[in-house]
Specification:
Length: about 300
């Protein structure tokens, strides 16, 4: 692991290098298309359904949840859905929940708190599950692309679109997710400084600890970025979020996040945030559970977003 403390210029260069490792990505400046399918009121909020043209390669279906009432600028959250083998689920997790999340789906929980929240279907999930994860990974690799890179690209462009809305306060943007969504929250927070608050649930994994634990098969193929470990640790990536606020939640029995790795990340990020003058903006909470969100954790997430 590298030493903590970097200048803004260093962080900008490291951010650019991390993005380069994500393969041949579509033009970052290409126009975004958006077609609204419709909207409905459900459970105290309005759910909008959209199809976005983010990458020029395939449509990206999305859900946007907003509070009922005037469309004044509100804080926003990019919610990142998990994996869990639920290829047919994708963004439905946002409105229907998952077995390892708390009973109230995040679309409801976030809009109850006054947030506008967006969730897209990622490659291979939901309405984009027409090709398997492994086949997509292989086909992209042949073409110089990285599946995780294409997923991250879509998340960044989804945020671009979100910030065009008149009911979103661009100065108050957060991202959160569970499992694969946790990894996406970390990468989106690291690469995009428009994200002011990052919350990751149950996927804060130090890669070298995962290697030592012989645990690579516990993560899907999407997780692996060619050449990453030659230049970055998970601590390095998460350090790029500093000094912006970052909450991590982990289960001490979760095999996806070896405890030795959590110790390394926590130690390194405490040093990074302390050097940045904001030790209070980094927080890692551990619960005696496996790969799941706890009731206490949900309350901590909502409180951290409000702070």
């Amino acid at each position: 692991p590298s030493s903590p403390g970097r200048t803004h210029r260093d962080a900008k260069a490291r951010r650019a290098r991390l993005y380069e490792l994500l393969g041949d990505l579509p033009d970052r400046q290409r126009p975004i298309g958006a077609t609204k399918r419709g909207e409905e009121e459900r459970g105290g909020y309005v759910l909008e359904s959209w199809v976005l043209d983010l990458n020029g390669l395939e449509p990206v279906p999305a859900f946007l949840a907003r509070p009922i009432g005037p469309g004044r600028p509100r804080p926003a959250v990019v919610f990142n859905h998990s994996h869990g083998g639920g290829y047919d689920i994708g963004k439905k997790e946002f409105v229907e929940g998952r077995s390892y999340l708390q009973p109230v789906p995040y679309a409801k929980a976030l809009t109850d708190q006054g947030y506008v929240a967006l969730c897209i279907d990622h490659w291979c999930f939901g309405e984009r599950s027409h090709a398997t994860e492994l086949d997509t990974f292989k086909a992209m690799l042949w073409q110089g692309q990285v599946l995780w890179g294409m997923m991250v690209y879509d998340s960044i462009r989804a945020l671009d679109w979100l910030l065009t809305r008149g009911d979103v306060d661009g100065a108050r943007v957060a991202t959160l997710g569970m499992s694969m969504g946790s990894s996406m929250a970390q990468w989106l927070g690291a690469l995009d400084e428009r994200v002011k608050v990052t919350v990751d649930i149950c996927c804060l994994t130090e890669y070298h600890a995962l290697l030592a634990d012989k645990g690579l098969s516990r993560h899907g193929i999407y997780y692996y970025v060619p050449g990453l470990l030659k230049e970055f640790t998970a601590s390095d990536i998460n350090a790029l979020i500093a000094p912006r606020a970052h909450l991590g939640l982990a289960g001490t029995q979760d095999k996806l996040t070896p405890l030795a790795g959590l110790d390394v990340i926590d130690r390194e990020l405490k040093a990074v945030y302390s050097e940045a003058g904001h030790p209070e903006r980094w927080k890692l909470l551990r619960y005696d559970v496996g790969h799941q969100e706890t009731a206490e954790g949900r309350q901590e997430v909502l409180a951290f977003l409000r702070a």
